[in-house]
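#dry-run=false #mode=assembly
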Amino acid sequence: MTADAGDAQRLTEVLRANAESLIDKWVSAVAGLLRGRSTKTELERDFREFFTALLPLVGSDGRDVGGPRFTEIRSLLEEYSRSRVRAGFTPTETASSVFSLKREVFELTQDDPSLHREVLVFSGLLDSLGLLTFESYARVREEIIREQAEQLLELTTPVVKIWEGVLAVPLVGTLDSARTQVVMEKLLESLVETGSEHAIIDITGVSAVDTQVAQHLLKTVVAARLMGAECIVSGIRPQIAQTIVALGIEFGDIVTKASLADALRHALRREGVDVVRREVG
Amino acid sequence: MPPRSGGPEELRISGDDDVVRVRQLVRTYAQQTKLSLVDQTKLVTAASELARNTLIYGGGGFARVEEISDGRRSGVRASFHDEGPGIPDLTLALADGWSSGSGLGLGLSGARRLVDEFDLDTEVGRGTVVTVVKWKR
Amino acid sequence: MERVPILKIGGVLLVSIQIDLHDQSVLALQEDLAEKISATGAHGVVIDISAVEIVDSFIGRMFATIASISRLFDADTVVVGMRPAVAITLVELGLTLGGVRTALDLERGMKILGQLGRQRRGVLPHSGELERDF
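#status=ok
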């Protein structure tokens, strides 16, 4: 349902003529809703911009909200949602900012029955825009979660130098394919940066591996070899050993050691370092 | 000649130099799309294999590179076109170690492992188009 | 076509690849090296690829070929400085270097050649773990 061009124009006129008071009431309503977490000045700036972009769209029922006419208002709403997510507002609070305008427009036009049809269409438009806000909100939140997951990944997988020429990566928790890949790339980079010829991948703290993860581990060991370094895998737990065998993954001539300590001893010997126990006391 | 907006760009493949040029063009697009260094290297290597195939088996042709998006993420698409003899047995051509000319026979199967999407369109006597896509992680 | 220069340092030939390799350059390098090893009687070849951004199957096969050629002249080959991204890509590609020795950098590559040379002359035992010099 779309309104006649003439009628839509009349509603536009009414909205334009009452812009100031409308925006004012709209800002007050939303400010009350947000209980002071957004200043009126901020809201007024955002809403004025939104209102200006909205006026030329009056007459549309919002079904073509993905179209080129809506480009400007879409990016405005996207930006609005983004700042709301970052500031910790709920999706309802965010979308209500758009829906609140409806009530103000209803009140403004209720005494003029000839406008009812257009207001109904306008209401559909605001519904679409409100839903758009909702979607942007969800998308931005997903982005943030993804960013945080990546940051967490960086934090939880340190590559440490435990001896001159020996690096260690203690892996903890559940290994998924993406995480293994990131860790392994970081390990290979570190080999070059520190000029280390040995790396110990300790999986004592790993609860489970699947085929893909085991493959990534294997590929890392082979890649390290191509670079002129040797990887030692330590701390393979019995269940994981069983999985590896059951999956038919060939570890071939890769050096594996029961514990990180054994692996370190092996690496040191290869580095030409002997560890000797000295009589104490 | 750096691409301006990530729009498609085409390069003729008729000699050795062109294989190197295709690598450079693909790298420019991969950097522009901000693929990770490893993904850049994988895509450029795949492009190198495929461009050489186009030259050796297809008797030359052209490469087309462009930046693409599926709404959620961006990526780089590269396609390699020739009007050569085509590939009679696809299964065989995609198997590791198979090769009808020089090279190790890793060209097609190797390139496929390096990219996210791999599409091969071939007709005996008409030619071959190989299209690969690498998405930003 | 650009040619890759080959430097002689003592009994070792150093090939440092600083260009984007054309297939023709690869073939030319193999020929040049064979001639140079034969002419100089070098006991080792170091190929420094720390500046190389991609190694495809054609370039990868060159390492194995050079190693085989060197072996015919009783010389060893070490590939040094492979970048992590290149190594990961080669593994994914399914390419092996046919048993070519590798080292992190030029210095270590030279050291390995020294050890292999001594082993050849019977100064070091052939079997068992290679002890590192310190």
